Amino acid sequence: MSSRPQRLSLALPRVTRVERGRALAGVAAGIAASLGVDATLVRLVFALLAFASGAGIVAYLGAWLLLPLAGAEPPSRRRQAFGLGALVVAFSLGLRGFGLADSLVWPVVIVAIGIAILRSRRHGLPPLLGAVPIVVGVVLFVDQNTGGLHQPVLAPGAVTVGVLVVVGPWLWRLARERDAERARRIRTEERAELASRVHDSVLQTLALIQREAHDARAVASLARRQERELRGWLYPDAGRLEGDATLSSAIEAAAADVEALHAVRVELVRTGDCPLDERLAALALAAREAMANAAKHSGVDEVAVYVDVEADAVSVFVRDRGAGFEPGAVPADRQGIAESIRGRMERAGGVAVVTAAPGAGTEIELRLERAGVAS
Amino acid sequence: MRSELDATVEIVGEAGSVAEAVPLIRELDPDVVLLDVHLPDGGGHAVIAQVAPERPAVKFLALSVSDAAEDVIGVIRAGARGYVTKTISGAELTEAVHRTADGDAVFSPRLAGFVLDAFKGGELVSDPELDLLTAREREVLQLIARGYRYKEIAARLHLSVKTIESHVSAVLRKLQLSSRHELTRWAHERRLV
Q1: 3-state secondary structure of A290
Q2: A55, A67, A73: which is closest to A29 by C-alpha?
Q3: Residue among B58, B69, B68, B67 at smallest CA distance from B29
Q4: CA distance A362 to chain B (A)
Q5: Which contiguous run of DSSP H or E holds residue A287?
Q6: Which residue of A has its CA nearest to B123?
């Protein structure tokens, strides 16, 4: 039973009446949905056909009787028969409305009834019942149109309509299949892209986490790196300038490195961005040292980094809430690190300010005027 | 999240989508709603838009892992009293919930960064009296962005914590009152729209 609408509509997908977006009985909306066109277009066709001796109205009634409501039981057999009949009447009305002579219309209608009966054989009607009207129609057609040759046997318009009726649905289906195929291909490509991303990053990380399960710090570090990577992919920073070479991306890369190497979390906050040049690259390296320094010596597992790009200057603040130190009594090994931060900044024409006290954490401010950058 | 909050916070209900959250908030009338910026059937701002007009006493604290600037600013402008990231510790989250319940603004470093960006350089300002951040407010926001807590900022600026809180609340108000047009321009400059 369920294949019935499919057979009726030949090549078209199954047509149902729909509740959603309907104007009257949902016929036009249903047909539009199955054809993939706008419902207004279908309604327009019905309306135009209504001018052909009212064919549109009868056709609409027929379709209403014939088409099942979406998701509901198909209509009763009697109702379907009436629907088919109405469609046949609409068909003949339409043909007459387009100015075809009775001698053409009636044989065509009788043949159409025959075909309809043949197609609905499942309803228990013997095939002969369908064959009879077809034969009668053909005989009638020959009889009516060979008696006198005072009118053209087949108007060119009628031939065109006939060809369209036969070939149209097939062409339509072909076009729809091509669209569907293309959509499918795009989906497959997106899926493949996603799969390779997930494989390269997430699955690798999960495998590593399983292997390192005994080491909580390593697991946390792996998870953090993965989170950063996935986030960067899912929510690309729209504020970033074109290309990879910006201060922001350089600092972000440095932060990711430090996170991976030292198992700390780097909370990175940025306002603004600017293209990377030599001096800013030096700033980024100094910032990396500052982060690594905080990660190694602070004893806490979180480092806050704030990058502020203003019109005239760039500042980077690297802060931890760890052990801190007495600036006057810096151990020798940290002197070198301070040098690689302060020395680097000074060579680039900037300054590094270290604020620290025992037990109060450490903050390193790196500041570079941009005036020299612009010139 | 549930396990992160300590006993001083009573969890009265949970919802997984906008459609679930709206009737639940209407029914339970909680003090604070911890609101995910991203919900399956619309953003957190949709929840605020539907609930806030009839439940003005309910306060919203936005929470997210994604951190796209326009989403966060969108939720704040819809009426959330603050924004924290999901990596926040349990103790800090509990404190943030209490602060939200008291009517104070909760600024994470990241939110401070977004807000500074939105007001950057005063370029987006048409009504200076309303929109421009004062030098002090900017200073406070910068310190928050640098990872300082309210208490530390207060000590550093020789102000009381209450004063810091009122500065932050003023910033929040300005953000919510600044015109849509200006923020659209801001978003456009960041190529968010």
Answers
A1: helix
A2: A67
A3: B58
A4: 12
A5: helix A278-297
A6: A311
The answer to whether the predicted template modeling score (pTM) of the entire model surpasses 0.90 is no
DSSP string, B147-172: T--HHHHHHHHT--HHHHHHHHHHHH
The DSSP output letter for B121 is G
Q: Measured between CB atoms, does B121 come within 8 Å of chain A? A: yes
The angle subtended at Cα A56 by Cα A53 and Cα A57, nearest 5°, is 90
Q: Which two three-digit tokens encode residue A81?
A: 């028969």
Give me the residue label for tokens 């197609």.
Answer: A119
ipTM of the shown complex: 0.75
The one-letter code for the residue type at A164 is L
- Predicted confidence (pLDDT) per residue in A242-277, tens digit: 455 788 888 888 888 888 778 788 888 888 888 888
Task: Tell me how far the alpha carbon of residue A276 is from its chain's centroid.
Answer: 35
Query: What token pair was written down for B116?
Result: 């500074």
Give the Cα separation of B37 and B20 in Å (integer).
Answer: 15
pLDDT bracket for residue A318 (50, 70, 90): very high
User: What is the SS3 assignment for B65?
Assistant: coil
Radius of gyration of chain A (CA): 39
Q: Which residues contact A190 (CB under 8 A, 6 or more apart)?
A: none
User: Hey, what are B29's tokens?
Assistant: 């009338």
Other CB atoms within a 10 A radius of the CB of residue B96 amount to 23
Residues of A in contact with B147 (CB under 8 A): 267, 304, 306, 317, 319, 321
Residue A267 near residue A300 (C-beta atoms within 8 A): no
